[in-house]
Design goal:
It contains eight helices and 44 strands. The protein is α/β, with parallel strands linked by helices. Strands 22, 24, 26, 28, 30, 32, 33, 35, 36, 38, 39, 41 and 42 form a 13-stranded mixed sheet that branches. It has an eleven-stranded mixed sheet with strand order 21-23-25-27-29-31-34-37-40-43-44, with no helix packed on it.
Amino acid sequence: MITLDQIQSFMKVQETEDKALKRVQATGDTQEEALQQAAIELGLALRKIEYEVVERGSRGTFGIGKKPWVLVAYESRKQKTEEGISGAQAGNGGELEDIPKDLDGEAFVRRTPDGVFLKVSAPFGRGRKLGERDAVDKIALRYRGDYDSSLVAKIVKLADGEFVRIADYDHNPANDPIMVVDVTDNEMKAFLMMHPPGEGGADPDFETMISFLQGNRVVDGIIEDAVRDMADNPEYGSGRLVAEGLKPKNGADARIQYSFATDNSHIQLREKNGRVDFKELNLIQNVVEGQVLARKIPAQLGESGRTVTGKMLPAKDGADVRIEIGKNVHLSEDGSSAIADINGQVVIIAGKLNVEDIKTVQGDVNLKTGNILFLGTVVVKGNVDDGFSVKAAGNIEIMGTVGCCNLDAEGDINVHQGIAGKSSAKIISGKSVWSKFIENADVEAGDLVVVSDGIINSHIVANRKIICKGKRASIVGGHCMAAEEIDAKALGSIAGGETILEVGYDPKSKKNLDQLVAESRALDKQLEEVDLNLGTLEVLKKKTKLPQDKQAYYTELTAKKQELAAKLKDIAKQVEDINAYLGQLSYRGRISSSGTVFPGVRILIKDAQPLEVRNEFKNITFIAENNLVKPIRYEESAEDLTRKT
């Protein structure tokens, strides 16, 4: 575990090094030129330099807009290892993890022209302190003459990591070690080997080794820690890696980052009430107008390398890439983003981004496709199976049939083969609903409901008209409401089941009115019950003081009565507003049959007295006149239905 003292010591060293750093600002047409200029000003090899980019340069276009690179460079920070501690280098930011936990004390002996020198380092962490006997043994390995033993004892005790002269030495320069440098691996590595010195030969020091390397063309990538270690602990007869070149690093190619899932092979199923919903496959990638579909991550510049002999090794810049676009997509001014022009489904076709405003399902809507949710028009070539839904911001067109499912479109809904709702289908259209037949379904349309073969036992609401045109076009059973007109060949059936037809008002407002009236009746019943209970308590209160529990109940009922009265007042205001709105509508309202109207049909037109049909009518139109439903000669609907039928 790293101690607080170790951290403080490390931070002090870093602070001292930061203050001592010499910084220069250099410029150049390229990053490499700026670095070379910084190396000249600092008097250092490129390997020993760290830098920060102040301003990135630009090549410009045909020389226009060209900008130089501006760098701030300084000597690379390295913690010396003379005490056996591996320094945290600038390349890794001086992380504390690089500080060794425990190091033993160590002795170093060096023979120089000026004498024999001894250095003793202190232990680190829980390392063992060097003993005097250890120092004497180390001296014996390097030097066999006399030396100052009392001084050695002091050096061991002090252990300050500084070389101290302990003996004279008759230096014979002719017997100094012979150094050989071996440059290998295409000049990417340099090894230094020293032959043992002869009698009187001195150990080479750090500066001598550096000068020798530089004199033999090794000028870059020198591993100073390795050279210092060789100076402190000479290794004779074996080569050691003392320099290593920097390999060039090619820049990463530009790439495109998509804002949508491009791989639908891995389906993520959603959970609903703790169970996996296999209908929610989310296979359609919906986007909206103005949405960013993809961004280009720019290519990176390559980082040049260098051999140990100083040769520059060029690197390749990353290759650029263009975002390819198709229809309904445009690029930003700088070409770095692709943006949707419309709402719809984003797809990649032949490598190009497209936004489709029509989603085509080639078969049925089932477990294979899941539910459909699309910000455009949906075309289903097959059927919509029971239990599935199709929702679209545009139109929905279904070539087959629809079962007990949900359809919801802001535009038209066109079902070619009909709707067999099984009393569970819910069809909502912002415009019109077109179908061959509608059976046992709940349908709402913002404009028309047009059927060719008939409507059976269904609840239909149309903001304008309900039209049944065809040989078997009849409305049998159910409840149909339209603002302007209901027109069919036959209304009701021989069996005489109830068929309710309403026209002459806004169906949605009428539906809301009915709900408010029903809610008002329910509240009236609650209020009656509250009044009854309050009356009982008030009679009891006149006779005697109410017990605590009954008094609390009395207070609760009083508050409840006030609450119910406030709700009823609010509902009465809403009912008044809706009635006023319905009263000012100019809808004439009519219900027509080009064939037969059977008994059992109930006709409601505006505020006229409802008509219960008890006898058959043929070729008839019903209108409201003098607060009564009046039959007149059949008037055919003027609506042009050729577009869909």
